[in-house]
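User: Hey, quick favor. My workstation is busy. Could you predict this chain's structure for me?
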Amino acid sequence: MTIAVDFDGTIVEHKYPEIGAERPFATDTLKMLIKDRHKLILWTVREGKLLEDAVNWCRDRGVEFYAVNRDYPEETIENNQHFSRKLNSIDYWIDDRNIGGLPDWGTIYRMIKDHKTWNNLMDEELQNATMSYEPPRSKKPWWKF
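Assistant: No problem, here it is.
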C-alpha cells in the first residue's frame, strides 16, 4: 500500500518551523511499515531547507521515504504535465489533523497491518469489554456479619 505521512504533529510534536520531539513510537512504526513493504510518502507543508531538515531527521532515525511531497520519486514538473502537490494514489493518510485526532502509533500499525478501520477496532474493544464484564457481587449488609 501507499501511505502518506505528515511530519509536524504526526511524526514529531508540532513545533513548526523547529522540529519537535518525536511522538512515541512514530519512527519505530514507520520502519515496521517499510519492512512490511509499504511505500511511505512524506507529505508535509515544509519546503526548502525546512523540508531537507525533516527528511534528514527521519533518515538519521532509519526512516527512508519512497517519495517526498510527490506521488513517486522521479516525478517532476518537467516529466508530468499535470504535476500537482495533490497526491493521487494514496491508500492511507496518517495526519494529526484527522477528525478525532491522531491515534497512537500502535493503533495506526494495527489498522494498516490488519486492514481494520477505527470503527472495527472500537467495536472489538467494546466486544472484549462486554464479554469480560462481571456484575459486582452483592454484599452482605453490615448488620448480618
